[in-house]
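DM from R.C. (forwarded with permission)

"hey, sorry to bug you on a friday — could you get me a structure for this? deadline for the figure draft is monday and I only need the backbone to look sensible"
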Amino acid sequence: MSEFFSDVCNLKISQGTLCTLLKGFAQKAQPAYELIAQKIENEKVVDGDETGAKVNGKKGWFWTF
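My reply, with the result:
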């Protein structure tokens, strides 16, 4: 991400700054995560799906429910 911001946006942002920002965003989103998990737990049926994506040249998987 640091390289992206530098190369594409001409913004110099350190990896440490990005980590701090992401931790802050995760904390702010925690109530929404908990609400989603609560709603899933209360459902009779939960469906899932997956999609592949390359991460650093290797195939990885993302799952959604």
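R.C.: lifesaver. The helical segments are 2-9, 15-41.
me: no worries. The longest helix spans residues 15-41.
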